[in-house]
Amino acid sequence: MNIVILGAGLMGRLLACQLARMGHQLELFDAGGPEALNSAARAAAAMLAPLAESAITETSVVEMGVHGLARWPELIAQLDEPVYFQQQGTLVLWHRQDAAEADRFSRQLDATSLSLPMLPKAQRLDAQGLAELEPSLGTRFPQGLYLPGEGQLDNHQLLAAMLHQLQRLDVKLNWDSPRAPGDFSPGAPGQPDWVFDCRGVGARAQWPALRGVRGEVITLLAPEVKLSRPTRLVHPRYPIYIAPKQEGYFVIGATEIESDDLSPISVRSTLELLSAAYTVDSGFAEARIVDLVTQCRPALPNNLPSIRRLGERVMQINGLYRHGYLIGPAMLDVVMELFQTNTSLLANRFSVSIQNADT
């Protein structure tokens, strides 16, 4: 078939790679450039932590995250260029003054483990256990949690590898070319057979319920810091995460602001993120700031993903919120089922909303 995809962020590239490998003729339009600098997919730590995220999201998202952990190695293996993928678990830490917040967080994880027994349970560690898992922490933290089986990937490498794949598969790529579903009439002579809209916040004109949720991310180069796995610091106001990448790079983030403001990161957010990172490992004091990024994640009123039909052969995929990398593979598989069979067992399993534009 002749297929048009709008938006070349995470969802657009995943879908384009899948359809192009099946032999369809693809044309992709994006309002930005090939580096995805204006995409929420670039401003992310790409952590794959379903149990950790269960503290702030619905069970359906956690189940999609479990699906994604199994699917990401398969999807990455289909790419020609290497993508860093790690599955060594998540470490959760807290300072003594935040013990009450940590206790609440632990109880939420325990409740998730009861409702989803397929998830590995959180393991409670004392200072010695933490030091054995992450020697660079020493004994600065008296206790913590280890969430086995969770993972992460390098989102910048992934976006670049998918771009290379699309080029190799002869997908027609149109950069700096914003388009909307109304610009096409699927099925008409000279028009595509299908249109998939994956534009995130850019689709608000056609999907008014969408809103932007601002996120701020800092990339540091800190070769002296030896943290080996994603680490979350529990805090009542800004639960920070530190995601170690390759060659001494770390992605640090936390902020989630109900705003579609895309101005540069604030001094307050920068100080809070860097100060919190320093309390985890003092080696961050000598780190070099490589990048300060702000971007808006697309969210619907319930903060859950949804699929909407604008017509028989026009489909919108949106609302991935802060869980894009966690749930992206599950949403891809749901869309492919709908595309091929017009129904989806996975959508029912994951409680993914599928609606018509007039509902």
CATH superfamily of the largest domain: D-Amino Acid Oxidase, subunit A, domain 2
Report the major sheet: 8 strands, mixed
The Cα radius of gyration reads 20 Å
Q: Which CATH class of the largest domain is shown?
A: Alpha Beta
Q: What is the 3D shape?
A: globular
User: Low-confidence runs (pLDDT<50, min 5 residues)?
Assistant: none
Assess the beta-strand content as a share of residues: 25-35%
Structural class determined from secondary elements:
alpha/beta
CATH architect. name of the largest domain: 2-Layer Sandwich
Helix content: 25-40%
Give the topology, please.
Layout: E1 2-6, H1 10-21, E2 25-29, E3 47-48, H2 50-53, H3 59-77, E4 85-86, E5 90-93, H4 99-115, E6 123-126, H5 127-133, E7 143-147, E8 151-153, H6 155-168, E9 172-174, E10 194-197, E11 211-221, E12 231-233, E13 240-244, E14 249-257, H7 267-280, E15 288-299, E16 306-311, E17 314-318, H8 324-341, H9 345-349, E18 353-356
Parallel strand pairs: 1-2, 1-10, 2-9, 5-12, 10-17, 16-18
Antiparallel strand pairs: 3-8, 4-8, 5-7, 6-7, 11-14, 11-15, 12-13, 13-14, 16-17
Helix pairs in contact: 1-6, 1-8, 3-8
Features:
alpha/beta, 9 helices, FAD/NAD(P)-binding domain, 26% strand, 18 strands, eight-stranded mixed β-sheet, seven-stranded mixed β-sheet, 2 domains, single chain, 359 residues, D-Amino Acid Oxidase, Chain A, domain 2
Short description:
With about 350 residues, this protein is an alpha/beta fold. Helices cover about 30% and strands about 25% of the residues.
